[in-house]
Amino acid sequence: MPADKSLTAQALLLDNQLCFALYSTSLAMTKLYKPLLDELGLTYPQYLVMLVLWEGDGLMVSELGERLYLDSGTLTPLLKRLEAAGLIARIRDVQDERRVRVSLTAAGRALKTRAARIPGCILSASQCSIPELISLTQQVQALRQRLTA
């Protein structure tokens, strides 16, 4: 078998696909988060929204979407459910009614205290050191940036 056919065969093996490694790892990570987030009454995407708002409250929906790489069609139902749960409030901008600002409620701010244990649980389950996780995160972020450029 010529070398180029062997390389092609290797390139098409599932276990050699970066996309599959990322996808299957994402599934495993989401499965790990599920029981932790169930205790908080949040889905994984809702948790991501809350993380962004805990970093900086009072963002516009468009800013949340940019930060999370989500379009408004995906983000709006998430926000409606968080609002129904009493964790956020959505308020139309007085100067431009097309813009909606998202703010944490007192319950949303209080939930941060309960969520504070999650990163430690993930760190423990990963069996990685903090420097290893930081390095992995930075590598994946750099890849995302190159792919979206």
From TrEMBL:
Pfam families listed in its UniProt record: Staph_reg_Sar_Rot (PF22381)
TM ranges: none
Protein localization: Cytoplasm
SUPFAM superfamilies linked to this entry: Winged helix' DNA-binding domain
Molecular functions (GO terms): DNA binding; DNA-binding transcription factor activity
One Gene Ontology cellular component: cytoplasm
Signal peptide start and end residues: none
Protein keywords: Cytoplasm, DNA-binding, Transcription, Transcription regulation
GO biological process: response to stress
InterPro entries given in the database record: HTH_MarR-typ, MarR/SlyA-like, Transc_reg_Sar_Rot_HTH, WH-like_DNA-bd_sf, WH_DNA-bd_sf
Annotated HTH marR-type domain residues: 15-149
Cross-referenced PANTHER family: ORGANIC HYDROPEROXIDE RESISTANCE TRANSCRIPTIONAL REGULATOR, TRANSCRIPTIONAL REGULATOR, MARR FAMILY
The protein's name in its UniProt record: MarR family transcriptional regulator
Organism, as annotated: Variovorax terrae
